[in-house]
Amino acid sequence: MLVGYARVSTIGQTNDRQVDALLAAGVDKRNLYHEKQSGVKERPELNRCINELQTGDILIVSELTRLSRSTADLFDISKRVKEKGADVKSLKESWLDTTTPQGKLMFTIFAGLSQFERDLISQRTKEGLKAAKARGRSGGRPNKRNDKAKTVKTLYGNGFKISEIVQQTGLSRATIYRVLGNTINENSETIELKPENIQATIDKIQKQQEQYKPKPDATDKPKLVRTFMKK
Questions:
Q1: Strand 183-186 relative to strand 189-192: parallel, antiparallel, unpaired?
Q2: Fewest beta carbons less than 10 Å away: which of 86, 140, 193, 205?
Q3: Cα–chain center distance at 104
Q4: Catalytic residues
């Protein structure tokens, strides 16, 4: 049985030309599925058409742009049609006709080329990420902690409590503790643990120790120790 599918993208358009071409190709009007829907959105009539296909049916479209929005989408639809035991045929693109050996061969070749193209894109993407990582850059979304790390340190340095920082930033306590993991709070000022700061802190502690070190009493005189030698 011949089953036709027609689609237009906007409400202002009509599918009369597509319907006429499908009827001229021998499709019964009762087996026509048509809808007004953009190709990038869900197409309920197309899904219903495929779900109702029977073994031996032929899904006919006036042209490929009415059936799929990309090469990958075309192969996905063709796979679904094949699983139903049916075939696909385009009136405009004569190479797409899985009812003939030549059409199946052409479709297989195009499917192979499409898969080859996807593999190349995947390989280039992986190589690009590897090269970027070697240069200290990482892909993906920006780290949420890095975006708000400065805010967390500023709030903490101004005397905000951890619970208040959680409410202000929306970060978890664990994330905030990780951000503040390399900082200490001294005299309400946040000091980063850099080598120069560590040395300055050590010098300060040593200076304080010298100030509080007890001084020797001036009245104390060294005791004389007499050594008795045997004659």
A1: antiparallel
A2: 140
A3: 36
A4: 9
Tokens 């001294």, residue located: 186
| Number of continuous H segments (helices) and E segments (strands) in the chain | 8, 6
Q: Which residues of 79-113 are buried (b: 16+ CB within 10 A; e: fewer)?
A: ebbeebebbbbbbeeeebbbeeeebeebbeeeeee
Domains and CATH numbers, the chain: 2-97 (3.40.50.1390), 144-211 (1.10.10)
Polymer length in residues for the chain: 231
pLDDT in tens, 70-129: 777 888 888 899 899 999 998 988 888 888 888 888 878 877 776 777 777 888 888 777
d(CA 70, CA 182): 51
Instruction: Tell me how far apart the alpha carbons of residues 193 and 197 are, in angstroms, rounded to a whole number.
Output: 6
pLDDT tens string 131-188: 777 776 666 665 555 567 778 888 887 778 888 888 878 888 888 887 787 554 433 3
Q: In sequence order, what are the residues at sequence separation of 6 or more whose Cβ sits closer than 8 angstroms to the Cβ of residue 121?
A: none
